[in-house]
Amino acid sequence: MAKTEYFYWVAPDNMTWDDFEKDFGTSTRMPPTGDYFSPCKRVPISNTKALVVFYALVSLLSLLGNSLVMLVILYRRRSCSVTDVYMLNLALADLLFSLTLPFWAVSKLKGWIFGTPLCKMISLLKEVNFFSGTLLLACISVDRYLAIVHATGTLTQKRHLVKFICLGIWGLSLILSLPFAIFRQAYKPYGSGTICYEVLGEATTYFRIILRGLSHMFGFLLPLLIMLFCYGSTLRTLFKARMGQKHRAMRVIFAVVLVFLLCWLPYNMVLFSDTLLGTHLIEDTCKRRNDIDQALYITEILGFSHSCLNPIIYAFIGQNFRHEFLKMLVNCGLIRKEFLTHHRATF
User: Fold this and answer.
1) CA 5 distance to own-chain centroid
2) How do residues 42-60 score in pLDDT, each as one tens digit?
3) Cα separation of 53 and 125, whole Å?
4) Which of 138, 257, 266, 283 could form a disulfide bond with 299, CB atoms 3.0-4.6 angstroms apart?
5) How many domains does the chain have?
6) pTM of this prediction?
C-alpha cells in the first residue's frame, strides 16, 4: 500500500503558523513548497536501528516460512484443492513482499541510497504483492462462501478456472501499481535526505490523493467488505447446520483473515486520517501531523509483519499442513514413518 513519508522544512522551536505567514507573507522570500513541507518542528523517529533489525527478522522469517508453504503445496499438487491454489499464490505474494523490506529498512536509517531505478522496481514489487495478497484473501472467502453456503462446485472443482482468476488478480494488481513505478524517483527535497517518492511538481499532492483512493478501495475496503459478507454468511450456515468437521477445516482460513485484519486495519485507519488531513477535510495542525506521523510509523510495523505470520498459522492451527509437511519429510527420508503415524494418532 502507498506509504506516507513526512519531510518537513524544520522551523525554529517557537515558530507558529502565524509567524510563518508573517515571515514569508510580508517579504519577497519564497517559502518551501510541496505537500511534504510544513512550518512544524518534526518529531524524530527513534530506535531506527531496532526497526532495521525487526524488518530484517520479518523478511527472513517470511522467506523461510512462505517458501516452506509453497514447497508443501507444490509437493502435493496432484491432490491440492482450489483453496490450496489461492494459498500458494498468497504465499508467493507474501514472499515477494518480504524481499522489499530490507530496502525500506535501510532507507529508514540512511535515506534512499539505491537510486531511481531500484526505487521504481522496489515500489512496484511492494505494491503488486500487497494488492494481490488482499485480493487473494477476498477470493478465498468467495470460494468458501460458494462451497458451503450455496453448496456449489462451479469454482471449487475447476482448478484451471481458478488459475485464470489468480492470473487476473496479478494483472489487476500490476495495473493498480504501475503509477508508483512510473512516477516514483530518488528525490532530495528541501532540507531532507534523499527519499523514494512520487514527484509531479505542483500536482504531487493531488496525485497522491488519487493513489490513496486506489489503495483504500482495492487494497483494503473492497476486500474487507467481501470477506465480511462471505465469512459472515459462511459462519451462519455452519452454525445452523452444525457442520463440525467443516467448521474445523475452516479454522485456518478464519485465522488467516483475522490476522490480516489485526495487522492492516490500524494502519489503514491511520492512513485514511492522513488522507483527510491532506484534503483538508480535517484541520491541519502541527500536533495532528506529528500524531499521525508517529501512528503511521507504529502501525506500518504491524502491517509489514503480516508477511511472516501466515506460515506460523498453518504450522500451529493447520493440522493438514503439518501432516503433509511430515509426510514430505518421510518421503525424503529425513524422519521415520513411525513419527508420522504417532503424529496422526495424537491429532
Assistant:
1) 16
2) 555 667 788 888 888 999 9
3) 21
4) 266
5) 1
6) 0.79
